Amino acid sequence: MWDWIVNILLEILKVIQGFAVDWGLSIIILVIIVRLLLTPLLLKSTKATARMQVLQPKLMELQERYADDPQRQAEELQKFYSENKFNPFGGCLPLFIQMPLLLALFTLLRDLPHYFPNHEGSFAFFDILPSLTTSPATAMADGFTAALPYIIALVLFSVLTLIPQLYMSRNQTGAQAQSMRTMGVVMTIMMLFVGWGLPAGVLLYYDVSTLWQVIQQIFVTQKIIDKAKAEEEERLANAPMEVNVVRRERKPRPHKKN
Asked: What is the SS3 string spanning the chain?
């Protein structure tokens, strides 16, 4: 199902490889292209996440108020989303776009000799990674020393997954922040197992892409979050106050008996 994405990546890599010469450098350039294309979506997603953090207490209040009436709760939440022009899934779009790219890249790099049958020599990243089609598990067959560059790429693959989670948890408080940190640690351990069998080219792509994300979070994303939070808090402060009026049931007056 990823064939058309694989073919697009293949054509892009052919063009890049025409002037980059090195395969690893071609992948790094591919990361930069993808990240630049995703930047507008990422910025929009960041603003949506910041708004969600500001609106979270109100959402929880609605959920608790109508906990015994799921239908009314769904109606009120939908009304709340509509009034605030808020999409609860708005922050997930960049992730949904990147996952097919990563899966397609895995397919491409796993069968790179098949896609480039006339290529002479190895698919290397300078003298750092001798083969981008080799996984850490496969490299271990030649001994720890030969596998060391691949293991370093694997460790980076794992650790760089944790850093964005820890950084994002700074914008949360209490149980939610602790939950994000715990999830980050669990994902880091999972990445060690997942990355063990991945081609080094995929690890390189993910390492550079996540490093870009970390730098972007420090210098760009946090400023956008702070600004979006301030704007949303100001909007809520200036919004008309909502008053819930509960009509009392009118009971018939008692009549005196004659």
From this structure: CCHHHHHHHHHHHHHHHHHHCCHHHHHHHHHHHHHHHHHHHHHHHHHHHHHHHHHHHHHHHHHHHCCCCHHHHHHHHHHHHHHCCCCCCHHHHHHHHHHHHHHHHHHHHHCHHHHCCCCCCCCCECCCECCCCCCHHHHHHHCHHHHHHHHHHHHHHHHHHHHHHHHHHCCCCHHHHHHHHHHHHHHHHHHHHHHCCCCHHHHHHHHHHHHHHHHHHHHHHHHHHHHHHHHHHHHHHHCCCCCCCCCCCCCCCCCCCC
- Look up the pTM and report it: 0.73
Q: For 197-254, what is each residue's pLDDT tens digit? A: 988 988 998 899 888 888 887 777 777 777 766 766 676 676 654 544 444 445 555 5
